[in-house]
Write a structure and sequence with these properties.
2 copies of one chain form a homodimer.
Chain A lengths: L3 H11 L17 H6 L14 H16 L3 E8 L14 E9 L14 E5 L5 H7 L1 H10 L2 E5 L23 H19 L6 E6 L1 H12 L6 E5 L17 H9 L10 H15 L3 H10 L11 H20 L20 H11 L4 H16 L19 H13 L21 H12 L7 H6 L10 E6 L17 E6 L17 H18 L7 H7 L9
Parallel strand pairs in A: 3-4, 3-5, 5-6, 6-7, 7-8
Antiparallel strand pairs in A: 1-2, 2-4
Helix pairs in contact in A: 1-11, 1-14, 1-15, 5-18, 8-11, 9-12, 9-13, 11-13, 12-13
């Protein structure tokens, strides 16, 4: 049985694919499109090799180029929309950040303004989404749309209690964030006199959940939603129930030949945990293993608990790599802090299968696999399994932990049979106790289903749910369309919200088709066809002539 | 210009048609059906005459007869669903009261249970709604439905902080109450294994708003809603805007011959205010007037402000009488504390026109008119214009004032031109200041439109909105159907949610037709036709054979 704190870290980290930069830096985040162009001359099975200086230069260039197209705005948001209790320090409002990028915003012949594409920010600095959400950028011109990227309260620079926000996390809930977004949209419309402009919400991962829920709860503010990799069905209390083991099953699937990985990989991964347990059983074994694996000298590796911690750390890497199992190289999953190769699960499986099949070989294989993620910068000189890929973002990760411990209480389990891990059953009691200890809050496991409806979403309209075959979150996604106006796209060979990203010449046919379907639905919701052809659309991002007013 | 406090009292009181009994008494409320039977031998224009002892006996008999058919339940409700701040006195939950009346609850051949009729309690003790909502009772047998009457937090006996609840009103919001109801419904379904049972929400006035919003915000919990006299469009920020003067216009309409009142009545009422001002202009005049009107000796009547207070008090009576302008005698508007005659606006107008047309005659006329309401018990020996009709209920009324001062901030104005009153323009600034002074809260005038969508409700389905021609709240109701699944019934000759009440042989053809339409839509939502004919249905209330399980 896992200790609750380890469990929290693992579960809490799962969804946090996109971590925010340290807000103190305030730097825009890099865009993987540019980075991956360095890789374009290689192919899917290439190992990591790139020029860090070129990469850094291109990142800055690309990021600033997108940021320059946007205006920074701040608004007064209500800290607590649903009660009238006085918040701590009498802070009834806070300043919420959002970006408006309206160079392509059309004015129609009748004087009305074009549509609004609205990114429902999730658990990171909003500049991450601004820089990554190619689907919005690439279609702005053709639809004559203004882009709004709204930051989620408590993340990035939208801090209700400033630097002390983490001390007062009580108002960090999806309902409050969605009310911020609804107010923002209506304010924006009033200020710009564009009450008739259609609004399409976009979001990936937790942001996709918010986009879909915005359409359900605030249909007057949001006319349609592109909800990508949005696990709104990953909660307790569903009928039929959510399969808490689906995440691990999907990670396992990604390590099989069905997903293009080397045959035998998932079996080798499964064996590696036993190998690790055997080779770490005694104090003497652990001393030997420390040297074999080149563990950092200051990291304790003296108990069985340390061995378990190492295993969890390795497992977590595979969870992330599966989410980032994109067809081209990308730094999205590492938040710009290192690059994953194209189809990194396949690369990891190559490394795994290229190692020996004895205990030490298996352990070295799984460590190499995990290092695709942890040492994506190729700068680590030793293995530090007490540290994540991006230590700067601990704060953002911990805030997601708070959300998980309150209303986003998604169960997670592994069994070692249908997945390639070891038995880690879901224990609600211990998870609740962990949350009480960590945050002083008691999760309400049934709340999500009560508030968001579970599987009963058939009254909703104008939502495209997209889930990727390789994305471990797809098991919590909407995979069946309950009515013709809710579209469920299952994208073969796609990982975590690939469809939202910038177009890339290594994009699969399937993700291109998914985007075309999304665009056709957006056109239907807006009631206007996009102006230009596919070819035109992909060029639009390069145009620089402002069309304001 | 009105003083803010007067304005608050007037506006705050408007919607509070149904006041709760003093919760300390805990007595069930009388049902007007029985009371009005005493009147059946008289006709619409009869003045008040009845046997108080007979009335009281029948009330108790009828009320206990309905209450006996129900089981009292309590549940743990979450004080704050949308944030995780610690409520005062560490009270994270409270006990919410609800009644379940399931003698007619069917079990179908396939083992599934029949539908659930759910009353979304509003701003009074829930027993009031239990005893008044005939539409639910009369259709329970035919639909094989269980009835649930859920009490709104902070009213009746559902007090989050016990007797100190009024000190901590912060969690008294519609959103919190609706989350209580959603949780209650899902809990009930889990406990009874009836997940597939359809749920129809019922409500009148603010309860009708809650019923409609439940269908909009929690469509997974509520399959359809009967929203009667639900002024969900009585808020600021609508496009086109809400006519804040519509309430007064409708009260005025009820005093015209188009609404069956004596010709010239509204004009006489309009003149009475000037007459009052003239006759109360000097200290000497006021002394004379005090005697003429038989004001209670201990009530000050020395200043022009006192004269204004008297005018507001009289005006308020007309507001209530218009809401209670039912075709038969009823104590609903007085909450059981006195009976209004059939079509009391017509009776009032008779009294008005029967008085002289000079200043004193007009003033005596308007006082007699108002006394239909204030002296409905016929026990008052003098006129006390500093006291409402039902002083016991000050607490409930004041809590509605809190709701008005936070999110239910409905504007109200009078002009004296399209209505029969005097100029009382809406002054948001002064209303806000009043709320700050009274409750220490600042209303958020735009919140209602943001949260509930204003006129943009076309994505909703399965709602019947019913509004009465005589009901002053109809101006804030949904009078146009935005889609075929949202039905708007405008019921001629009906006042405030008459359609929800028990059938009565003085019911108009129009209200009978409205109920038939409501029943047909309920049948559609449930997917089952009612079992019996209209005649059967009306008898069902009298049956006493329990059909549990």
């Amino acid at each position: 049985m896992l200790h609750w704190r380890q469990l929290l870290l693992v579960v809490g980290a799962l969804i946090l694919a996109a971590r925010g930069l340290n807000p103190a830096h305030g730097e825009p985040l890099p865009n993987p499109l540019v980075i991956s162009e360095v890789y374009n001359r290689s192919h899917a099975r290439v190992a990591m090799k790139y020029d860090p200086i070129l990469r850094a230069a291109e990142e800055v260039q690309r990021s600033s180029s997108l940021m320059k197209r946007c205006d920074l705005h701040w608004r007064h948001a209500t800290v607590d929309h649903f009660s009238w209790a006085m918040p701590p320090r009498n802070m009834t409002t806070f300043t919420q950040r959002f970006f408006v990028c309206n160079e392509h915003w059309t004015t129609y012949g009748n004087g009305e303004r074009g549509p609004i594409f609205f990114y429902a920010g999730n658990e990171a600095d909003v500049t991450l989404y601004l820089n990554q959400t190619g689907l919005m950028w690439e279609n702005a011109l053709d639809f004559g749309a203004a882009l709004i990227f709204a930051e989620h309260r408590y993340y990035g620079e939208s801090l209700p209690f400033g630097p002390r926000s983490k001390e007062h996390p009580q108002f960090l809930t999806a309902e409050q964030a969605m009310a911020d977004y609804a107010e923002l949209i209506l304010e924006f419309k009033r200020e710009h006199g564009c009450q008739n402009s259609s609004v399409v919400a976009f979001g990936g991962s937790y942001g996709g959940m918010l986009a879909a829920w915005m359409r359900m709860k605030y249909p007057q503010a949001v006319d349609g939603a592109i909800a990508s990799s949005a696990p709104i069905l990953a909660f307790d209390g569903l009928e039929p129930p959510y399969d808490a083991g689906s995440y691990a099953k999907a990670v396992t699937y990604d390590a099989t030949s069905k997903a293009g990985a080397a045959p035998g990989c998932s079996e080798a991964v499964r064996q590696s945990w036993d190998a690790l347990a055997r080779q770490g059983a005694s104090s003497k074994d652990r001393s030997r293993l420390r040297n074999e694996l080149n563990l950092c000298p200051d990291i304790p590796f003296q108990s069985k608990e340390d061995v378990t911690a190492l295993a969890l750390w390795l497992q977590s890497a595979l969870d992330y790599i599966a989410m980032g199992n994109f067809p081209y190289a990308s730094s999205y999953i590492t938040n710009g802090n290192g690059v994953l190769p194209p189809f990194p699960m396949r690369v990891g499986c190559e490394l795994m299968m290229g190692s020996g099949s004895d205990d030490i070989g298996l352990i070295q294989g799984i460590v190499k696999f995990a290092n695709i993620f942890y040492n994506s910068t190729q700068k680590a000189t030793c293995l530090n399994f007490r540290q994540g890929v991006n230590p700067d973002t601990d704060e953002a990760a911990s805030l997601w932990g708070y959300q998980w411990c309150t209303e986003m209480f998604m169960p997670s389990s592994r069994g070692g049979v249908t997945d390639m891990f070891w038995p880690q059953p879901w224990n609600e009691t211990s998870a609740v106790e962990g949350c009480q200890k960590e945050w002083g809050v008691t999760p309400r496991p049934r709340w999500a289903v009560t508030e968001w409806g579970g599987r009963k979403i058939s009254t909703a309209t104008n939502i495209v749910f997209a889930n990727g075959e390789y994305d471990p979150w797809s098991g919590g996604g909407v995979l069946e369309s309950p009515n013709p106006s809710i579209v469920s796209l299952f994208i073969p060979r796609a990982a975590h919200h690939l469809d939202l990203m910038f177009s890339h010449h290594l994009d699969t046919a399937e993700v291109k088709e998914a985007r075309a379907i999304q665009i056709s639905h957006i056109a239907k919701w807006i009631g206007r066809r996009p102006k230009a052809s596919e070819g035109m659309r992909l060029q639009s991002i390069a145009r620089s002539v402002p069309q304001k007013n």
